[in-house]
Amino acid sequence: MTVSLAPIRSLCLAALVVSALTCTALAQTPNTDPSGETPFSSMAIARDAADACRVPRPPADLAETAYLRNGYRAILRILIAEEALASENCTCLLEQFTWDQALDALPRFQTSDNPRLPFKVLDLYAKADALEAQVVEACEE
How many domains does the chain have? Predict the structure, then answer.
């Protein structure tokens, strides 16, 4: 007695196709609540005042690598903190600075002639953190 597996294979194939189509349909249908918003658009967290004055991530076209962009971000943080300390200003000075100023300040922070590693980012972070802590301390007095 031989049993034909063809009907079983056909049923398995049909079940697979139906489940794949169902998954595709569900993936393409956005999940919305009654207000019409997708769940993640309503999960945005409002920035507090401290974040509003935080130096943003640099634009991708600022430098070729993330290492360089992070270094320029740290340089900009240093420049802002130095100005705040020098002027004894406790207001946000972020709007007074540009990415070009960070690029122009490179010679001051350069530790190597290697164009791909012109500075030590971790050292720049440490300096920026220390200066920002001084600003916070001076402004709390």
Answer: 1
